[in-house]
Design goal:
Blueprint (H helix, E strand, L loop, with lengths): L1 H21 L5 H17 L4 H10 L1 H20 L6 H7 L2 H9 L6 H31 L8 H8 L3 H21 L4 H21 L2 H18 L2 H19 L2 H4 L4 H5 L5 H18 L13 H9 L3 H6 L6 H30 L3 H14 L8 H16 L5
Helix pairs in contact: 1-2, 1-7, 4-6, 4-18, 6-20, 7-8, 7-9, 9-10, 9-11, 9-19, 11-12, 11-19, 15-16, 15-18, 18-19, 19-20
Length: 397
């Protein structure tokens, strides 16, 4: 009986780990398959229904917090101006309900989060190395230069911003262990190699917000983990590194020239035109409730065109800011729900004195300033998985 229980726990943990591991891999369907497998095993073979009810009752506020974003989605379907893509949107964002429902209805040991974080970070290493080798092969045989921003993401089969988020989270994982294992020379050397390689990958992808998020994350770790005498040194080094990276030619010229020429705007003007268009659309729509789930955005695309943001008009860009994204769809009502959602998560992490959780949440928030992270599968799953696990683990000492 004990062996059966242990086997069930092992298999459940393995499936949950594989959800994290499969995220960085190019095949988008892989993570979906593991979530489906995890859901079936949890529903029919893991802990009894009564135990699930008892545990989730004790975690009800946490579960409702994470799943509130899906509830907002459902409310938005009632008054949306468009109904064509509602079903696909409801399926895409199911992890907002499925993952917290599973995680908050079982007893999870604190060590499981570290295992998931560990294997996720190594999966990022593997997929990064694979993509780099492909880019080197193409460059060597004169098949094209793919060491550019979006072009490199072809080999990753991931949007560059989302993969940059994966890289930042992985670097933070290895940085924590580099500090903790500072007496083990062998581990320090290996960890340094991993960090340097992942930093190079971040340089190749050239996502600027990722360097800001990484720098702030590392500074939080430094003030958390290091002694007072070394904190100032680390602060100077991190700030110096960030300034240096922002002034490298690779980050300054991360687009092919044809990309910017087609827009007749420089990169700063592009961002300004983007957010100006979004804010003008918010004012035009119902300010209190927006246009609803998957609401019509023709007015936004028209504003892109009028504000000279040609690429955004052609490719129908979203808001590229998670806070503005919620306001577009759900108005002030949705943005207040989202802010309360974030406030409650922060409250839990501060209450638990969980500095790592606070660091990871801040990294997510920084990325949300320039990307609508919760609008794609990669962002939805990594956010929901990590935040749910961190909210469910025991108090961090």
């Amino acid at each position: 009986m004990i062996d059966m229980k242990l086997n069930k726990e092992f298999f459940f943990n393995w499936l949950l780990i594989m959800v994290g591991v499969s995220l960085p891999f190019p095949d988008y369907s892989l993570v979906s398959k593991f979530i489906i497998g995890l859901s079936i095993f949890w529903l029919f073979f893991y802990n009894p229904l009564e135990e699930k009810k008892r545990i989730i009752k004790s975690n009800l506020s946490r579960f409702l917090t994470i799943s509130s974003l899906y509830l907002l989605l459902l409310i938005g379907t009632i008054y949306t101006s468009e109904r064509i893509n509602i079903i696909s949107e409801l399926i895409l964002k199911l992890p907002f309900v499925i993952l917290p429902l599973i995680i908050f209805s079982v007893s999870i040991k604190k060590e499981l989060f570290w295992l998931i974080y560990k294997y996720f970070s190594y999966a990022v290493l593997v997929t990064s190395m694979s993509a780099l080798l492909k880019a080197i092969f193409f460059r060597y045989y004169g098949l094209g230069n793919y060491f550019y921003y979006h072009e490199f993401s072809i080999f990753l089969n991931k949007h560059s911003t989302y993969y940059a988020l994966f890289l930042v989270l992985s670097i933070i994982y290895f940085a924590v262990h580099w500090i903790d294992d500072n007496k083990n020379t062998s581990k320090i050397i290996h960890t340094c190699i991993y960090i340097l390689f992942l930093l190079y990958m971040l340089y190749v992808i050239s996502n600027r917000i990722s360097f800001i998020a990484l720098s702030i994350g590392i500074l939080i770790l430094a003030f958390w983990k290091l002694r007072t005498k070394t904190k100032l040194v680390y602060t100077v080094l991190v700030i110096g590194f960030t300034v240096f990276m922002f002034n490298t030619s690779h980050l300054k010229n991360r687009f092919f020239p044809s990309y910017l020429q087609a827009q007749k705007l420089n990169e700063f003007e592009l961002r300004k035109a983007h957010w100006k268009s979004v804010i003008e659309t918010i004012r035009h729509n119902n300010i209190f409730f927006g246009t609803g789930t998957e609401g019509n955005r023709d007015y936004l695309y028209d504003r892109y065109k009028k504000n000279n943001y040609k690429i955004a008009y052609i490719h129908k860009y979203n808001a590229h800011n998670q806070f503005l994204e919620f306001t577009l769809d759900y108005g002030l009502f949705g943005s207040l729900i989202f802010l309360f959602f974030l406030f409650y998560i922060f409250f839990i992490f501060i209450k638990n004195k969980d500095k790592l959780a606070i660091t990871i949440l801040i990294v997510f928030l920084i990325f949300m300033m320039t990307e609508s992270i919760l609008e794609r599968q990669s962002g939805i799953i990594i956010f929901t998985l990590f935040i749910s696990l961190l909210m469910n683990r025991r108090k961090e000492k």
